[in-house]
Structure formats: structure tokens, C-alpha cells
Amino acid sequence: MRSTAYTAVILFLISIFSSSIRAQGLIDGFMRGQRKASLALIGSQATYDMYYINTTETRNPNLGTVTTQAVTLVGSYGLGYDLDLIVAAPYVRTEASAGYTPKQEGFQDLSAALRWEAYDYKIGKTRLSWLFAVGYSMPLQNYVNDALVAIGRGSQNLDGRTMLHYKAGSFFITGQYGYIRRGQVSLDHVVNTYDPSQLNPNSGTKVNVPDVTELIIRTGIKTKPFYLDAWFQQQTPHSEGTNIGPGVPFPTNAVGFARIGATAYLRLVGKLGLTAGYSATLSGRNIGKFTRIDGGLVVGL
Amino acid sequence: MKTLFSAIILSSLFLSVVACKEPTIDEGILPLVSAATVDADGGAWRTIVLKSATDINVPQPAATTSDTYQRELTGIKNGLLSINPEQNTAVTYWADGGVRRWNQIARQLVAKYNLLPNYLTPTSGTLSSTDPANPMASPTFAARVYALLSVAQYDALVVAWRAKYQYNRPSLETQGVISRVPVLNVPSYPSEDAAIAEASYQLLAYVFPNETAWLKTKAAEHKQSRLWAGACVPSDVKAGEDLAATVAATVIDRAKNDRFSAAHDPNNTWQTGLAKSTYDVRWTSLENPVLAPMLPLGGRVRTWYDSTAVLQAKPSLPPATTSAEFQKALGEVRDMANTRTREQWRIASYWDDGIATYGLSGHWNFLAEGLIRDARQNELRSARTYALLNRAMQDGATASWSAIYTYFVPRPSQMDASIKTATTIPNYPTYVSDHATIASAASTVLAYIFPDQATQLNAQGIEAGISRLYSGVNYRFDIEAGANWGNRIGQLAVDGAKTDGAK
Questions:
Q1: Is the separation of the CB atoms in A180 and A158 below 8 Å?
Q2: Are A208 and B22 an interchain contact pair (Cβ–Cβ within 8 Å)?
Q3: In angstroms, what is the C-alpha Rg of chain B?
Q4: How many whole angstroms separate alpha carbon B467 and alpha carbon B446?
Q5: CATH level 2 (architecture), domain B265-498
Q6: What are the chain A neighbours of B6 within 8 Å (beta carbons)?
Q7: Are A132 and B27 in contact (CB < 8 Å)?
Q8: Where are the domains of chain B?
Q9: ipTM of this predicted complex?
Q10: Which residues from B are below 8 Å from A191, CB to CB?
């Protein structure tokens, strides 16, 4: 049970990270266990030299390669045998290699999620569980959100999702579907660009950040000292949004992507484990074509 | 059972989150206001492009006792009872103020066309500054659009006001018509709204030929909306339309001869100018790939105010790059870029108004709109405010452009590539700051028209200038030189405003 706790943390943290490099969904299907806690510290680096304008791949010589590094602290705690609390806070730095766009650095968004295992069926020697989760995240500081090189979009987000988790021996497969509602953000300036549907240009500084739906499928093996998985994640903009363009506020862009990745965990000694992951972008919409590596330490408490 | 219950609650919470749809951009709705004054002497105010309001002869209207007029009046009265929701929306939309609405439309179009070829998106490379149907916008271009629009509106309204009080056809309100929206209590012939609609449509269609059909629809809706509202009769509209068409033709004639059409420098003479510059280091484009500078001959555009007075105030060459003074200024930009606070970033972004926006002059029009609304200025006064503001801003843009392409002073990031900027580096030389020139010209004019807000306006003018230092795209000496020059130009506008007949 304990090793599952660690893996859950790993998966979770890779996910919450940065809204621009959100990798793997909110959580996995493994429950923590009552009064079990864990803490993980993960470092990551994501880079892109191409990005998508709407869905068209673009290279921008005035930007070069954008590198985003982050350190994320993730804690989780089993409030009950069927209820977990997960909290994460990342510190992010992002920088472009060419041009005159400044680097951005700072604490990004604080996320918290409650995961609840509603049903647990035994089918022979295998198990199928049905889980629900709600999450909330908010910026830890008023970072710059309206720039191509930014650490986040600055919105408060509400995340609701459900998942089916199937386990047969060390094999598992999880499918989850969720909706992320993103709140309005304030730009530093009045909306001053052309929007054909917006006849009155006196719209103030508040803009909406498009909501997204998210689908994640993850499969792998899990034993006590070892964990390995492969995953597919797709985020699709749900509400109407803009495309990256000169003058267009970045937070209003409709952002989506499809990514694949893999995660590994190895228990070293006692309650200490190591984790590593890799992911790549298959397709995207108004986002960088990231490839990402990460690694970190996990401690069970 | 308990878990089932919670499952239902969780699922419904989930669904309620999913079910919400949101618009991309919100807009507020402000209440309609009635104007503070009627300005019965408005027909005697000094016109700008016309020699005087008497240049245009507005024909005598049919008497209110005539059958023709009575039929029109009955038509309006009956129409009031049968307007549909779309018509009602149009009535409310235009009742907010025709001058302000057309200014908003102009800002939208400037933002739409304010694109550089090949900027960021290779797919937008089809836009060319040399294609008159796709006029590449820029600070100078934007300022000119607003100036031409408000000058045409103002001259047309002075003519309309003169005819109103010359013929004194009573307003519909005095004839027992209860209008759907507040209507200014001035003689109804000719319709000021029709004059605004026609003048605005003609001017904007001249500048944005690809938008002609859309603009025509807007103008038709504007005119019709006043009939639906019960503000005037069709013969009032016709007269307003006719006089404005003549005024617009005169203003367009001026626009055709203001040398703007050659401002993009089709023969690439700017390179000769660059070679002649006596500054010790010369500007180069920091774009990758390198782009030709924006509107190199924008400084030769005809000014609204006395060109000698405008250009006499041109500042001299800034200190050479080798001087201690320059190095100090460069160091200040570098320090700013390295230690920029979030608040400084906000100010830089607030005043940036760069590519694909309605421009800094559009930003000041936006600010003026709020002031005009709060002061409850009538259409004539609103047009005067915009015309004063926008002529000063266009002259400010022209003035700064003339210095920019005389001296070719390099941007801070050209002198030190480690200087990263909060906003995009404009693709033209740095001295003088067009931002500071335009903003101080604007704040000087607005502070005169709205003395109660003078302190705040002057602070905004200063902030708009210094925002360029916060951003890292200008030296302090660019901003100071630009601001001084802008103040001088704003003062020329104020001197004119003091004697134009408006009290």
C-alpha cells in the first residue's frame, strides 16, 4: 500500500506543475490509505523550439528555444481509507534563448485536490474502482500572465473529474475524464485588439480563460518497490477562445494538446524512493511543442 | 447509501461545472445620459477644414405645417409602436452617442489593420504596407485615422448646428412625440446623427476601403435608429446626410494631399537618410529577419497646426554613445530591465498599445470617451474634444517621426543585447519617443478641456512616457525630449481651442 502512495504522488505532481506544461492529469487511481502521508520534491525541465499557432507548428527566430524549469513540492495525506488530500506548489522559471523577451520566474499556482474512491468492486482476483476528484488551484503571486514566455495563465481553476481504475495483479489501467473550469483573469491593460464579435471595445481588463476537458489513459505495472507506466493525455478547449497572434491576450487563447509519456518509480531504501519521467507532445493548439524530463525524491511519512 | 448519496452530489457538482459556457470577452452596459448643454451658438464655432460653416448651404426645410412634414411625423409616431427587438437594440446602441460609437468603430478597425507583414506569424505575410486596401497601421497611421474622422464629424456638426438654429425646425419632443431614448433638445433639422453617420462612414471607408460595405450597413443602421427612436423625421436625416457628404469630400480631399500615401517610402529613400545621420551609432532593425523601418516618411505628413511652430520645437541630437551622459542613460535602461518590478511591468503593458491594438492614440481616445461621457458632452462638443485631441496627437506622431528618421538613434537593446524588454521593441529608431510625444500632447489638450481632471491627466501623460523606460525600449532622454515637444504641440492645440468660439 505504501509504494502506491508514492507513485500517486509522482503522477500527481507531474500533472499539476505548470498550466503550460501540465502533463498528466490531476491524479492517478491509487489511493493513499488512511493517515498515510507522503512528500515529494521534483525537478523538471521542459523545452520547445516550435509552438502551435492554433494548430499550425511555428518556429520563431525572435524566441529561439524556450526552456522552463520547475521545482515542485507535493504532499499527500489519506484523510480516510477512501479519501485523499493532495497539495502541490511549484516554483517555475522560464526563459527564451533568442530575442528580447525577458525570463519569468516565481511561485506559480497552489493546487489542492480531494480524491474519493466511491466504489470498489472485486472481480475474481482483479479489482475495479470508480473514483471522483475535485481540485482547485490559484496563483501564489501576481505573476505576468500575458506573455508568450510566462510561468502560468494566472487564473483560478476548478477541476472536476471521474476515473475508472482496473487492477489485475501488478498490471493496471486507468481511464479518466475531467473538466477544468478556468476563472477570469485581469490583464495589465484594457482589451485593445480587434475582435469581430466584440462591437463595444470598452470591455475593461478582465478576460475569460477558456475551459478545457481532459482525457487521460494510463497503463503499467506496479509492484512494491517498482512502478512503470505509459500514458496518453489529451486536453481540448471547451469554450470559445482566441489563437496566438500579435496583440491577442495570451490568457484568452484556446489551449489544447495531446501528449504521451512514461513514468518510473524505484524504491531505494526504507521510505525513500526515486522517480523519473519523460513526455513528448503529439499535437497542440496555442501552446509550445514541449518535450519534458523530470526526476525527484519521494518520501513516505 | 451514504456513499451513493455523496456520489450523486459529486457527480452533480461535476456536471454543473461542465455545463457552464462563457463568452470570450465581457462588456459592461452603461446607462444612457442626456447632454449637459445644447450649444445654440455651435454653428458659429470655427471649422477646421471648411473655411466656415457657411461654405455649405443646407436647403430650407418644408414647414412643419406642410402635408409632407405632417405625413413624416405621423409615420414616426406610428413607427414608434411597432419597432422590433433588433431595432430597439440599434436604438439603444446609437443613443449612447454617435460620435463616441464611430470613434469606437474606428478603434476596432485600426486594431484590425494594425499588422506588420511577417510579424510573428509567417501566415500573415500577405499583408503589405504598399497595398492601399490593406493599410498597414502604425502609430502615425492610427493617429491620422482618428484625426480625419473627428475633423469630418466636427465640421459636419458645426454646419448642422448652424442650419438647426437658422431654420429652427422644432424638435419632435416639442410636438408631442415621446422618444424611446433621451434626445438632445435642439431643432431637429438637419439630423446631427445622420451627419455623424455619413461623415464617419465616408471617412472610414476612404481609409479602410475593404470595410466599405460593413461601414455602410453601420451608417444606415445609425440613421434608421434615430427614426425608430422618434428623434427626427426622414427629411431631417436626408439633410444631415447631404451636408455631411459634402464635408466628408472636403476632408478626404485634404487627406489625399497630406503626403501620407508616400509615408511608407516606396522608393526606400530612408537608407539615404540613414547614411546622412550624424549620430555616431546608427539604428538597425532588431527583428529577425530584419524588417524595413515603419513609415520612414511619416514625419513629412502635413500637420494640422502650424507646421513651422510644430517643427521648430524639434529637439537637437542626443548625447553621443561615447559620452558619459549616454552611458548613464543606457545603464539606467539596463538596471531597469534587470530589476523591473511587477508594477513597472504592469505600467509598461498598460501603455504599450503595440501591434494589433488600436494604438496609443486609440488608448487616449478611449480615455477621452470616459471623460466625455462623464461631462455629458453633446455630439458637437464630443466631436470638438476628439478633433482637438486627435489633431494634436497626429501632429505629435508626425513630429516624433520627423526626429526619429533624422537622427536614427539606436534602441537600448541594440547598444546592449542583454537588455530584455517587457513589450515588443518597435521597429524604428528610438529618439524621440513617439509615446511620450503623443501622450503629452494628448494630456495637455484633455487637461485643458477637462480642468477638473487635469492633475490625473497630466500624471497619465507622464506615466505613458515613462512606461517606455520601464519596458526598456527607450532611454530617459527620448522620453523627456518627446514629452517637451508633445507639450508644445498640445499647447498649440489649446491656443486654437481658446479662440474657436466654444465656451
A1: yes
A2: yes
A3: 25
A4: 20
A5: Orthogonal Bundle (1.10)
A6: 116, 118
A7: no
A8: 42-60+67-256, 265-498
A9: 0.88
A10: 25
Residues of A in contact with B372 (CB under 8 A): none
Backbone angles phi, psi at B176, to 5 degrees: 85, 10
Q: Please name the residues in contact with B445: beta carbons below 8 A apart, sequence gap of 6 or more.
A: B388, B389, B392, B490, B493, B494, B497
The distance between the two most distant Cα atoms of chain A, rounded to a whole number of Å, is 64
All 3 cell numbers of residue B443?
494630456
Which grid coordinates belong to B423?
A: 513589450
Chain A interface includes B421 (CB < 8 A): yes
Q: How far is B192 from chain A (nearest CA, A)?
A: 22
Model confidence at A259: pLDDT above 70: yes
Q: What is the pLDDT of residues A213-237, one digit of tens each?
A: 999 999 999 998 899 999 999 999 9
- Tell which of B8, B18, B25 to mutate to test the A interface (max A CBs under 10 Å): B25
| Separation in Å, CA B317 to CA B61, B86, B152, B320 | 60, 58, 37, 8
Give the gap in angstroms from C-alpha B196 to the nearest C-alpha of chain A.
18
Condensed to tens digits (0 to 9), the pLDDT of residues B425-468 reads 998 999 999 999 999 999 999 999 999 999 999 999 999 999 99
Partners of A281 in the β-ladder:
A259
Supply the Cα-derived Rg of chain A in whole angstroms. 19
Strands A256-269 and A272-285, sheet pairing: antiparallel
CATH code matching the domain that covers B42-60+67-256, chosen among 1.25.40.10, 2.60.60.30, 1.10.606.20, 2.60.40.10: 1.10.606.20
C-alpha cell at B385: 474634444
Q: Containing domain of residue A286, as a range?
A: 2-300
Instruction: Count up the domains in chain A and report the number.
Output: 1
- Check CB contact under 8 Å for B13 and A247: no
Interface test with B, best of A200, A253, A255 (most B CBs within 10 A): A200
Average confidence (pLDDT) over B253-267? 90
CATH number assigned to the domain comprising residue A150: 2.40.160.40
Length of chain A: 301
On chain A, the residues whose CB falls within 8 A of the CB of B369 are: 202
- In this predicted structure, what is the pLDDT of residue B177? 92
Question: Could you read off the pLDDT of A194-215 as tens digits, one per residue?
Answer: 877 654 555 688 888 999 999 9
